[in-house]
Design a protein that fits this description.
It is a single chain. The protein has 241 residues and is mostly helical. 36% of the residues lie in helices and 2% in strands. Strands 1-2 form a two-stranded antiparallel sheet. Helix 6 crosses helix 7 and helix 7 crosses helix 9. The longest helix is centred in the middle third of the chain and has 17 residues.
Length: 241
C-alpha cells in the first residue's frame, strides 16, 4: 500500500471511507459553548490485512517501563500484563533481568503462532496465571511452591487439583504439548509435526521457571525452530534485511 501522504483525498476516501461526523450534544440539553466543537470525527479504520502491506517498517516505541540492566538490586515491579508476566516477578523480584524478557517473548510467540494466549483465564490475576503455569509446565520449584499463599485455592496438600475450587479454572492440567496441538494452526498444511515439535522445544527452554536456567536471547536465535522456520520466514518477507 502506498504511503498515505502520497494519496489523493479521493483515494484516501475510497480506501478508508469518508470521515464520519457526529453532532456533539450536552447531557443537560443546554447549548454548546464556544470552547466545544460542534461535531466529533470518528477515527478512521485503517487496519488492513498483513498480506496487503508492502515494504513494512517496524517501529519499536514506548520505553516508559524500561530500565538499564546495570543494577538489578533496584526495587522495581514489572508492569507487564499478567498473561506475559514471568514467575520471578511474583516469587523472586530480586532476580528480574533479561530472562524476564525471554519469558514474555515465549508467551508472545505462542500467541502470534497460536492465535490465542498461552495462559488463559477469565479476568485472571497473578494467582490464576501461576496456576496456569503449573497446568502448562508442571510443578513450581519447591521454594516458590511453599510460599505461594493462594496455592490452596487451586491444589490440595498432595499437589493434586482441587475439584471444589471456586476459581474459574478447570481442575486438571493442560500441558504445553497439548496447547501446541490445540493452537489455531492444526489445519495449516505448512505447519508440520516436525515444526510443532521444534517450536515446543524452543518454548519449553524459554519457559524454564528459574531465570538462570532459562534460554538466553542468543540461545533462542540459534534454536532449531528459529533457524529452520522463524528466520527464513522473516527473510522471505524481507523483514530485518
Amino acid at each position: 500500500m502506498p504511503h498515505i501522504n502520497s494519496m489523493s483525498v479521493d483515494t484516501v476516501y475510497q480506501k478508508f471511507h469518508r470521515p464520519r461526523e457526529t453532532k456533539v450534544h450536552r447531557v443537560d440539553g443546554a447549548p454548546l459553548g464556544p470552547e466545544v466543537p460542534s461535531h466529533s470525527v470518528m477515527p478512521a479504520q485503517v487496519v488492513i490485512s498483513c498480506d496487503e502491506v508492502s515494504d513494512p517498517r517496524i517501529c519499536i516505541s514506548d520505553f516508559g517501563e524500561a530500565w538499564m540492566n546495570t543494577n538489578m538490586s533496584l526495587e522495581k515491579d514489572l508492569h507487564t500484563p499478567v498473561l506475559y508476566l514471568p514467575p520471578e516477578a511474583t516469587f523472586a523480584n530480586d532476580c528480574l533481568g533479561f530472562p524476564a524478557d525471554v519469558w514474555t517473548l515465549a508467551c508472545s510467540i505462542y500467541e502470534i503462532m497460536g492465535e490465542q494466549p498461552l495462559y488463559e483465564g477469565f479476568f485472571p490475576d497473578r494467582d490464576d496465571i501461576i496456576a496456569e503455569m503449573v497446568s502448562c509446565l508442571g510443578p513450581l520449584p519447591s521454594d516458590w511452591w511453599n510460599v505461594w499463599e493462594a496455592r490452596g485455592e487451586f491444589f490440595l496438600d498432595d499437589g493434586s487439583w482441587r475439584i471444589d475450587m471456586t476459581r474459574p479454572h478447570a481442575p486438571n492440567s493442560r500441558p504445553l504439548t497439548q496447547r501446541i496441538q490445540d493452537m489455531g494452526r492444526k489445519n495449516d498444511p505448512d505447519f508440520s509435526t516436525e515444526e510443532a515439535n521444534s517450536l515446543e522445544k524452543m518454548l519449553r527452554d524459554m519457559l524454564v521457571y528459574e531465570p538462570k536456567r532459562r534460554a538466553s536471547a542468543t540461545d533462542v536465535v540459534k534454536s532449531e525452530w528459529m533457524t529452520r522456520w522463524g528466520l527464513p520466514s522473516l527473510q522471505a518477507f524481507n523483514i530485518g534485511a
